[in-house]
Amino acid sequence: MNGNSAGGQGVSEQLNMEPPSLVTAASLYNVLESSVLATSGLGLTGGTPAIPPSLALFLLRPKSMSLQSLLYLLITPLISSLSTRVPSHTDIMIANLRDAALPVPVLTVLPPSSEELKSNKATLVCLASDMSVGFADVRWLVNGNSVTSGVITGSVQQQDNKKFTLSSYLTIDSSEWDNSKVITCEVSAGGKAASVKINKSECSE
């Protein structure tokens, strides 16, 4: 009885040597194995603890350590090991197959109307359809230079086939259109990207 009490006291002293915030799950397990199982009557059966270590840690935890702190110490190493797991070859193959199966957005760019050009403005419309996800990045370029002024992108809408569509508008001076500058619409959705170029010289009057 005295031996067990001494062993239990030794464990408590070792556990209380560090503030609860600094006690790690590893040190708790080391103390449990070296002091508790050998002297507190829990015993070993064929090298295996007679009770689960997690239960022993709960029963023998310092009084100053809350149950939440104990659970945190026990669960954190498991979460860490899962988050640092190296993806297997199968994981990579599945990811590649999933990405390959996603469709590329279908793009259509409409030129400005002749009526609008009379007002010295030119609005181009980029229609993106059959997107695999309900969000997308849209970029407009004029002669290869990204532009943000005059760009309005509408919200994504779901199609009847469960894929998604959206419309984006670029308004520029009609002189830029008349000078046959190359206008590009780029859309990225679900890791897939597509682009379409248009200029006045390629459009029928």
From TrEMBL:
Look up the coiled coil feature and give its residue ranges.
Answer: none
- Do you know which CDD domains this protein is assigned to? IgC1_L
One short Pfam name that applies is: C1-set
Q: Which UniProt keywords apply?
A: Disulfide bond, Immunoglobulin domain
InterPro entries, per database record: Ig-like_dom, Ig-like_dom_sf, Ig-like_fold, Ig_C1-set, Immune_Resp_Modulators
In this chain the Ig-like domain maps to 105-199
Q: What is this protein called?
A: Ig-like domain-containing protein
UniProt lineage = Eukaryota, Metazoa, Chordata, Craniata, Vertebrata
